[in-house]
Amino acid sequence: MALTLPAHPDPLADRLHAGGLLHELAHGLGGPFHYLLPERFDANLADFRAALTEAGVEGRVYYAKKANKASVFMDRCAAAGGGADIASLGELRDALGHGVRGEDLVVTGPAKSPELLQVAVRQGALIAVDAPDELDRLLTLGGERPVRVLLRRHPPTQLRSRFGLDDTQLHEALGRCAAAGDAVRMEGFSFHLSGYALQPRADLAGELVELCLKARVLGLRADRISIGGGFPVDYVAADAWDTFLGEHDPGHYHGHKAFAAGDFYPYHSPVAGADALRAILAAQPAGSGASLAERLRQAGVMLLLEPGRALLDRAGSSVFRVQGVKDRAGYGIVTVDGTSLSLSEQWFNSEYLPEPVLLTRADPEGDREDDPYEACVGGASCLDSDLLTWRKIRFPTRPRFGDLLVYPNTAGYQMDSNESPFHELPLPPKVVIDQDGDRPRWRLDR
């Protein structure tokens, strides 16, 4: 029996799926595509800002651009006066080109290229220093304006992390920043934590607040900390997720493929998005004393955030056309007109678990079967491993040529992190859908 993991109901998406727009787009574009809902980005950004205001904490939200390459989200970010988290020269240029000001950029990532550092310094961007030699290079770039830096702290609880400065390196970096005088403006500290647990973020943020106070003794500005991203997104209902984790086994997948439960993204989270930020601010670092919000207020420290996936929650989905269906013993294989490279979870030896929605095309013969049909979903490439969904999905009816499969809520990291024009197949275009009253209007993302 197939395990079902439908995404949370989404009235806006349901209205789009009920109309004929997606079928028209599939016909006109001639292949798979992604649709984007920018108003959801606006709402998510507003919710994160509201969480800061409610806690009485001065803060700034930087959109982690790596989560989606679409231009429309940078446009909305700039229009809302938001910042952007970038990690390459291309991302920096793109953010500037869409109107995000240089001083509203934070440059992250390890071992940044000299070209990226040069342009970032000239534009007045804030740079998260990840290693001593990176600080060395920055100290040679000071000129008309000071180099703005955060010192990234290596997380003590994640010793295998490749990011950040350890205790000795951090101490030396503080001394070098103090000795550099006006050439460097050391604005505070940051960290990069893997995973989605909330308390560890509050714990390390509390430590960074104390580091700011110590850095000020050296004459450094140290008035802000960045806790990065990692705000969980809630895709599916708790009961469906718990059932899936408890019951899934190789028999539920094509070829008896085995997945470790720990490799899956936590598709259900009881506290997600901006509510996760609220929980972090309310938490007591190290489990005692004042809340993180109170410590930030008392120390006069600003909180910087770099959400990506959480700003894109429900802001887009991926659409594929069915090219064929074949039967195997006890289940079928649906082949679509794209590849698994357009769903990026295979990076983590995993797959995207919220299941696709079948949108049937008009059937003039009226002979479509009513019985449910279990099938996995394969891509159009010549690779045996090219499956968009290894799991056997229980579709309400047998899919047919020309039907659509809509993978819901893929804007955050899924729809373009791994895309490749393999087989000379074009990359799926992105379609921006704006709501004009009750009428959806579409345009291609630039």
Q: How does this model look, in words?
A:
The structure is a single chain. By secondary structure, the protein is of the alpha/beta class. The protein has two domains: about 10-35 and about 315-445, Lyase, Ornithine Decarboxylase, Chain A, domain 1 (Beta Barrel); about 40-235 and about 270-310, Alpha-Beta Barrel (TIM Barrel), CATH 3.20.20.10. Helices cover about 30% and strands about 20% of the residues. Strand 3, helix 5 (about 90-95) and strand 4 form a beta-alpha-beta unit. The mean pLDDT is about 95.
What's the CATH architecture of the largest domain?
Answer: Alpha-Beta Barrel
DSSP E strands, number: 17
Shape: elongated
Tally of separate helices = 12
- Work out the strand percent: 15-25%
Query: What would CATH call the class of the largest domain?
Result: Alpha Beta
Rounded mean pLDDT is 94
List the uncertain runs.
Answer: none
Q: Structural class, from helix and strand content?
A: alpha/beta
What's a concise summary of this model?
By secondary structure, the protein is an alpha/beta fold. The chain is built from twelve helices and 17 strands.
Topology (SSEs and partners):
Elements: H1 11-18, H2 21-29, E1 33-36, H3 38-54, E2 59-64, H4 71-79, E3 83-86, H5 89-97, E4 105-107, H6 114-123, E5 126-129, H7 132-139, E6 147-153, H8 167-180, E7 184-191, H9 199-217, E8 224-226, H10 238-247, H11 273-282, H12 292-299, E9 302-305, E10 316-328, E11 331-336, E12 357-359, E13 373-378, E14 387-395, E15 404-407, E16 430-436, E17 439-444
Parallel strand pairs: 1-16, 2-3, 2-9, 3-4, 4-5, 5-6, 6-7, 7-8, 8-9, 11-13
Antiparallel strand pairs: 1-10, 10-11, 10-15, 12-15, 13-14, 16-17
Helix pairs in contact: 3-4, 3-11, 9-12
